[in-house]
Structures are given as structure tokens and as C-alpha cells.
Amino acid sequence: MIRFFLLFVSLSFCVPAFAQQKQFTMEEAVLGMNTSLAREDLKQLNWIPGENSVSEVVKTTYGGALVRRRLPQMSTDTLLRLSELQKQLDGKYSLKALPLIEWIDSKEAFFALGNNYFICSASANGWSIKEWKNLPGEAENIVLQKSTKRFAYTIENNLYFVDAAGKTHTVTSDKEAGIVNGRSVHRNEFGIDGGIFLSPKGNYLAFYRMDEHMVEDYPIVNWNVTPAAVHLTKYPFAGRTSHEVTLGVYNPSSGKTIFLNTGTPKDHYLTCVTWSPDEQFIYLAILNREQNHLWLNQYNARTGALIKTLFEETDPKYVHPQHSLTFIPGKNNEFIWWSQRDGFMHLYRYNTRGKLLNQITKGEWVVTEIAGESEKRKELYIITTKESPLDRHIYSVNWESGKMKRLDSDPGTHSAGVSTTGDYVIDRWSNGNAPRIIDLVSTTGKWKKNLLTAKDPLAAYQRPKTENVTVKADDGTPLYGKLIYPVNFDATKKYPVIVYLYNGPNVQIIANGFPASGNLWYEYMAQHGYIIFTMEGRGSANRGMKFEQATFRKLGTVEMEDQLKGVAYLKSLPFVDASRLGVHGWSYGGFMTTSLMLRHPDVFKCGVAGGPVMDWKMYEVMYTERYMDTPQENPEGYEEANLLNKVKNLKGKLLLIHGTIDSTVVWQHSVNFLKECVDNNVQVDYFVYPGYEHNVRGRDRVHLMQKITDYFDENLK
């Protein structure tokens, strides 16, 4: 038997208030950290290019104003008031606050109202505002190169370029639906988040061109209209035909486009696209479809010819490039390359002949970001996990000697905004006890100024105790988690537990940030009598390749063993009711939830699986083949991970949640699972929402989390 629940996004929703007890409402638990319970912040805090100065939008008696603070004296002057901006716009726009203002240089900035762009220019008489460029309303994927004032954008599947004189060039004019220009390719894997690459001086435009003709059509049905409408999308399933991508280079002077000679097979992956600073070359990492062999190639940007392969990287399991090259400031012939070749993500300095000059960082930790650089000190400013996988700290590192120096001093999750001079850093950080702190720090370590210590927006609420937990995997690897106790905890009682998990590749959910619990819904459930436990097992991110690759070719096995170690820890606690364990996760966590319910059916009384993968043969090529190889190469692994053939094992109560228009994990996963339930006379509950998104957001998520909460209440209390 299948019980169906349908979420209509237009329904109103009422949440009971617990104001006297200061418990979270469901809306506060789901949306509060971004709305009514948002942490204090400084608006539009940015470095002014070429100066040791920051700009910030502040409130004044005259309304909002953009001010400048000069370091280290912290002297302040006003640059632009909202009232002044409104006056110069001649009342054409009704603005309640200053728009997002971005600096071009120390004398010019810009802002956009919709697709209309405006220039702000400093003069002796104050700032003048003038219209800059009005882009078409249907323009998408807009890229603005601030230094050269060039624009590029897409309309539908074609690409357009606006030169410094304001002339619009039609770069492509493909009319066939199977050709896509200037957009992200390879389904946003390999660190790809766009398809437009303007050259450093703005004289050329490189772009992805993706041919999807050969990929099978997959129907996505929009049930929000009558009659329902079918949208055919191209979905490359694991082991089946994938798309083909090339990289074009457009020359505005000639109006001509050439394509790089990237060779065959054409279904390989093109990533790490990087222009040389002198615009003579394009560097491109080519990864074979098997994802175990990478070539870093140099191409002639005028002709598209391959000049040479600088070096190759191989791995018996997979190579996972995620970053473009970073050229050493002031040099055309030296760059930084990111690699996990020694087992951890580190930085390497190469010259353009392909010679390794030195490994810049090393150790059993990873670099997560290059935040800036200082040419005069030969330093990069980086974010690392050097102290702990749960923390992020800011370091300077000399790119020749490898000498490192930590620039922050407090435990927690730090991010860095580096001045263009390389002299100062905006250090934004938080930890379990600090909602948000913003410091200005000199990169020499001799000066520091606190700009904000945010008040705790949750201070008036009944908060649960959160405890950091370390569990050992069967090979002794430490696994980090959090145990969230019920409020008014009584050690003599036994409580139901909800295990929340993701545990998929390339994601980390356990960190030292605010709130310490990691999620206010966890705290909502703790206010209503639950213990919440969440832990990351092997396979998740930022712990090195051995940790991540433990699940290679066998997704849903090692991770489950680790999660069951967490369950064993829970059962060892005298206040845990082992007969009332629930499990919940979304996406990969949905796959894990369903796997645990079917492969270890005696552990959990109930589970809630959102957007779950049920059969990896029905997930996309790039992600799946990296971690599983193809179904043809690894039939045993795919069969073992296939949940459709394990339906009859279900003993507990399982609620499936899926969006009918989900184009990431297609609805067919759950539909096929339901068919197996019917064929095997297995009861499962099903909650469907007519949504496009794989991850539900906004008010719809409030409805959804209430349904999930009700389900746990029904089955665990």
C-alpha cells in the first residue's frame, strides 16, 4: 500500500507560536537565519581598488550612505548618499536602499537596476551618476569585466558581446535547440560555474559551445498548468551517450570565431579554462571520460592550435580538477596549479614550459581557497583546514619558499577578503559561540581592528546543548559529528533520536560555525523532545583523497558502515531509546536514508528520504562515473547500490519526498521505486510537490519541514 501526500505551493500555512517559552516556530527554524533571526552584518563592506580603504553602506539621519574608511587611521568620509543618487536618477526609480555598488577602480564604481547598468564617477564636486548600458531584459549569464568595461551575456542558446565602445556583437547565431553557447557545461561539475571567459585586456572572448544533439531527450512534465506541459531536456545518464563540448574564441576586431583543437574523443571534459595575462594563450585541462587521466594543455588563442601539453596527472580511481590556473602577479610564465596528487588538495608552482618549480603547500590538510596575493611580498593568502577539518583559517604563504603564517587567532570558520594592495584582510568569522565577527587585519600581523561583534540573535530562545562527537570508523579513521540534546534534558529518561545525514562526495556539513548545532530545525526538534545526531563518514569532502575515495565503485556501503558506527555510539548512551531511531536526508542523503532502511531494516523505525537516487544508472554521467565508473565496467557495484531490487526488505516506515519537475534527480527514481513497492505489496508513504527545484526553498520548505516533523512525531513519539 502507498499513502500519497501532495504539497500545493499555493496553500496558506499557519504555525503555532510559542512566544512565552521562546521556542522556535517552524518558519523561524527553517528560514529564520536568513530573515527574522539573521545575524548582524556590515552592508557592502568592500576594498576600494588600489587603496588601503574599505567602503561600507551605513545608515544616517539622511538615509543610507556609502562611506570610505582609510586604514589604519580609520578616518571616514561620505562618498554617496541615497538621496543624492535618487536625485541624479531623476525619480525614474524608487529605491528604498542603495543598490549593490561595485568598484571598477578608486575613481569609478557601478551598480545595476535589473539589466540596466549605471556608472558612478568621482569628481571634485562629488559623484556623478550616468547610464552606462541597458542590456536586453531577456539577457542571462551576464558577465561584466570591470577592468575593461566589457559585457558578455546569453539570450536563449546564443552569446553576445558588448565592447568598450558599447557596440553589441552577435557572437553565435545557432538556431538548433541542441546547441548551447556561453553557458555552464558538464552539468556544473569540475568547478565549472559559467561558460564565458573574457581575456584579461578584454580583446577576446572565449566561450563553451556544447552540442547535446546526441544526448537522449528526457521528458520533464510541468503539472502546474492544464494541460500538463512536457519540456524535453537533455539528460546524459551514466554509461550512455554524453554531450560534446568545444571552446570557441571570438575576436571582436575581425568578427570571427575559432575553436581550440581539443581533439578526440569528443565526449571528454574541458575545464580549468585560463587566459594567459598577455592574451596570447589559453590553458585548458582536458579530462578523459573515465576521469582518471588529465592533460593540461596550452593553445594558441589566435589559431586554436595545440602548442603543447605542460604535464599530465593520473590516478587509478579518479582525478578531480576544480580550479583554473592562477598566474603569479606580474608574470606571464608562472602559475599556480591545484592538485590532490599527494593525497590532499595543495598548491604547486609551475612555469609555462611545464616545469614544476616547487610545491607551495603540503601536509595532511587541504587548501580550500586562494583569497588574494601580494606581489611585493611574493605571498598568497589562502584558506586552509590546517588546524582541523572543522575549521577554516587564513594563512599567508610565500609562493617560492612555502613559508606560512596564520593571520587569524580564533577557532572557527574564517573567510578572507584581501585588499588589492595585499596589505590588509577583511576577516569574517564565526564559531559555535560567536555569531559573526568582522576584523580588519594587516597581513604583516602588526595591526588589527574589530569592525563588528554581532549580538546573538538566538539569545532569547530556549537552546539545546550541542556536543561535538568523534566516532572511529572500522579502520580507526576519526569521524566527526554533533549530538544535540533535548532541551530540559533529563538523563534518567530515554529519548527518540533523528539521525540527519548527507555523507556524499564533495560535500561537508559538519563545521565549527554558528549556530553550533548547524541547523535551527535540529534545535526545533530538540525543543520538542528529540535527540538529533549528525555525522560525516568516509566519502565526504575536505579530508583528503583516501577518505573521499573509500567509497569508489561502491557508493552506499562504506558510508553506511560509518553511519552504523554512529548508531552504535548512540545505542551506548543510556538516555537513547534504541527502539525509536529515525533517519533523514536529502539528495545523496535521501539515497543514504533509503539505503539504511532497506539494507539494514532492523535499525531505524522510520526514515524520510528527500529527492533520493534509487538507481545510479539513472543519474548523470559526470558525477556518477567519477565515483562508480560506468554500469558496463562496474555492474556489481551498480547492482549492489540499486535500491529498486531491495524494496521487499523494508520493515520500518518510510516517507519518500520528490519534486515532480526535478531535473537533477529525475522523478522516475521515486516512481520506479513506488512501482516496486506495489509489485511487492510493500507499504511506503509518498509526499510529492509540483516543483522544479531539487532542493525546496522559501515558504515551500516551511510546509515541507512541517510535514517531515509530523511524520517523525507520528512514528517516533
From TrEMBL:
The keyword Signal applies. Residues 523-717 form the Peptidase S9 prolyl oligopeptidase catalytic domain. The keyword Signal applies. Transmembrane segments: none annotated. It comes from the Bacteria. Residues 1-19 form the signal peptide. Keywords: Signal. One of its GO terms (biological process) is proteolysis. One of its GO terms (molecular function) is serine-type peptidase activity. Residues 136-435 form the Dipeptidylpeptidase IV N-terminal domain. Gene3D superfamilies: alpha/beta hydrolase (3.40.50.1820), Dipeptidylpeptidase IV, N-terminal domain (2.140.10.30). PANTHER family: DIPEPTIDYL PEPTIDASE 9, PROTEASE FAMILY S9B,C DIPEPTIDYL-PEPTIDASE IV-RELATED. This is S9 family peptidase. It comes from Arcticibacter tournemirensis.
